Q: What sequence folds into this?
């Protein structure tokens, strides 16, 4: 255990140290940069702007004094980590890097006079504004569901916090042989492999602590990112038999099973699309029929965070259109939108995407203040996931501006090979744990 912990810490330190090349100092001591949102995108932007030029005046407006990381939060459900493990302090950004924080809710934007007003009435002027508001869960997208139900009886937990703790308590105390139903979200949504990782981790946990329990994924989609490698992992770990359209490609690696599998994935074409919730009877009604459950986890449709609407940064899609090269809003000058709320084409809504976008915007701003051309952008994304505690998966991509002016994927290989060795699969799980530590250090340390 000690050698594993030392490896993870060493990996985190090494990865964090090389995460981003140094940016030449801009020398614009009077420039005021206000950042709304202290999550992955906002905190990364604050840190890397200060690394570019310590004299820049960087202020982050964030309503929560402690960040609760969403990445890796499903591991609270299987007791691999605690809620305390998800808490990240802003102290290093404040005291080491000199980032100023206003712990208050941003309320309104005046793009003409370049000011942001907070809920308490504080007015902050800016030369450049970065908005990283994350996502808003559309609880009303599933009839019968509501934020009140999510907080009390049928948690979502897709924004880590009290609902995560509630869902963990429900799952870990579920009756013997009970049923856990996960209502998966429609596209686009934050963390593409996440709902399927959550279901798999609970299948593994139930196999040890509640072996007669059943896990059902009710899905409005027929596929998902990492589906082939995930389904193969489910087959090997839980005896899952993939849908017919996957079997030909996976045939050489699949293991036969005559035992019923505790994990069921109902695709849209098989009637999996959630249609309404009856919380009184704990029943999820789908296109294929009613599913009665002991614990229901609804991951509803998502749009840009509320502040993006309040600031007038969204379009009819519910997300924020940006100039692809710079991530500057197409609706307001000198306002940049990064992370889950931005319209970034092929880039997924993930923490890694927000991080790499933030680093690029830091370069765009500092080079712009100094009168330099920031060059041609290249972005990356890696989403790690688990089919089981020691069974790792990933998708890794590189993105550039394509000929049509949109952001597109340029790499070919993306996933763990289907014929990966047990050692490679185990190492992918180790990488997932090391990445969480390295990623957090890169942003907040």
A:
């Amino acid at each position: 255990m000690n050698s594993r912990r030392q490896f993870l810490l060493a990996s985190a330190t090494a990865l964090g140290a090389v995460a981003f090349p140094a940016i030449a100092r801009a020398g614009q001591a009077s420039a005021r940069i206000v950042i709304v949102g202290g999550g992955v995108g906002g905190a990364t932007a604050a840190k890397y702007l200060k690394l570019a030029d310590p004299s820049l005046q960087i202020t982050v407006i964030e309503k929560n004094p402690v960040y609760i990381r969403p990445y890796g939060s499903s591991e609270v459900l299987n007791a691999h980590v605690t809620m305390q493990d998800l808490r990240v302090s802003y102290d290093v950004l404040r005291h080491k890097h000199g980032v100023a924080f206003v712990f208050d809710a941003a309320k309104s934007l005046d793009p003409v006079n370049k000011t942001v007003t907070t809920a308490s009435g504080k007015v902050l002027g800016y030369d450049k504004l970065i908005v990283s508001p994350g996502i808003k869960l559309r609880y009303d997208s599933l009839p019968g569901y509501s934020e009140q139900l999510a907080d009390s009886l049928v948690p979502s937990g897709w924004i880590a916090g009290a609902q995560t703790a509630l869902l963990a308590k429900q799952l870990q105390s579920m009756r013997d042989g009970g049923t856990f139903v996960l209502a998966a979200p429609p596209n686009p949504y934050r963390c593409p492999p996440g709902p399927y990782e959550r279901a798999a981790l609970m299948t593994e946990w139930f196999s040890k602590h509640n072996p007669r329990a059943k896990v059902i994924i009710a899905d409005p989609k027929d596929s998902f990112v990492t589906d082939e490698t995930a389904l193969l992992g489910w087959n090997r770990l839980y005896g899952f038999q993939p849908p017919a359209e996957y079997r030909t490609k996976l045939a050489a690696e699949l293991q036969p099973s005559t035992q019923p599998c505790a994990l069921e994935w109902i695709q849209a074409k098989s009637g999996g699309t959630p249609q309404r919730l009856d919380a009184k009877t704990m029943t999820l009604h789908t296109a294929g029929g009613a599913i009665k459950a002991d614990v229901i986890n609804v991951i509803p449709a998502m749009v840009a965070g509320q502040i993006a609407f309040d600031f007038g940064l969204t379009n009819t899609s519910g997300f924020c259109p940006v100039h692809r090269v710079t991530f500057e809003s197409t609706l307001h000058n000198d306002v940049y939108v990064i992370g889950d709320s931005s319209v970034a084409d092929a880039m997924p809504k993930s923490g890694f995407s927000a991080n790499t976008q933030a680093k690029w915007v830091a370069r765009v701003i500092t080079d712009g203040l100094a009168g330099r051309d920031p060059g041609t952008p290249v972005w990356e994304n890696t989403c790690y996931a688990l089919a089981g505690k020691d069974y790792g998966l990933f998708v890794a991509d590189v993105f550039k501006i394509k000929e049509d002016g949109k952001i597109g994927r340029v790499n070919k290989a993306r996933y763990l090979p289907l014929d990966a060795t047990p050692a490679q699969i185990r190492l992918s799980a180790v990488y997932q744990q090391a990445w969480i530590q390295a990623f957090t250090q890169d942003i907040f340390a």
Summary: The chain has two domains: 32-136+303-374, 147-300. Residues 1-28 have pLDDT under 50 and may be disordered.
